[in-house]
Amino acid sequence: MAREPRLICASEALAEGGRGERFALASQDGRAQQCFAVRHGGVVRAFVNRCPHLGTELDWQPGEFFEESGLYLVCSTHGAIFEPRTGFCVAGPCRGASLEPLEVRETNGQVVLANDEAAPAPKRTSDSP
Ligand code: FES
Fold first, then answer.
1. Is the distance from the beta carbon of residue 80 to the nearest atom of ligand 1 less than 6 Å?
2. 88 alpha carbon to ligand 1 midpoint, in Å?
3. What is the domain range of residue 65?
4. Does any domain span residue 100?
5. What is the pLDDT along the chain (129 residues), one digit of tens a residue?
6. Ligand 1 within 6 A of 91 CB?
7. CATH of the domain at 57
8. Are 73 and 67 within 8 A, CB to CB?
9. If you measure from the C-alpha of residue 1 to the centroid of ligand 1, how many angstroms do you get, rounded to a whole number?
10. Which candidate, 88, 81, 73, 75, places its Cα nearest to that of 39?
11. Beta-strand pair 73-74/110-113
12. Domain total in the chain
């Protein structure tokens, strides 16, 4: 029997190059793993919210992941710049490393995890509208 897909947020909550949606998943050791979803190039992208440099969360304000132009993701700690399509770091102290991607899809106006077989339900961690 098919399970309901795990909801991250409504599609309309993610504007192109705008504020992202924070959510949490349990990692394999059972602890909460902070994650986020943003929209770039019309497509929703999601990553674990952990900079490959020192492991800090990226957002400079809760849910704010893009730099000023809205074209790249930026780490608020030391300014590493990431390509939003892949999470690849193109500049900064972790250049050449990547954010950990998560598969998501949009269906019926909702953003959901694409493969949630082993993942527990996401938990919202910000005051999104
Ligand atoms: S912790 Fe992200 S660039 Fe240093």
1. yes
2. 13
3. 6-115
4. yes
5. 566 778 999 999 999 999 999 999 987 888 899 999 999 999 999 999 999 999 999 999 999 999 999 999 999 999 999 999 999 999 999 999 999 999 999 999 999 998 764 444 444 554 443
6. no
7. 2.102.10.10
8. yes
9. 43
10. 73
11. unpaired
12. 1
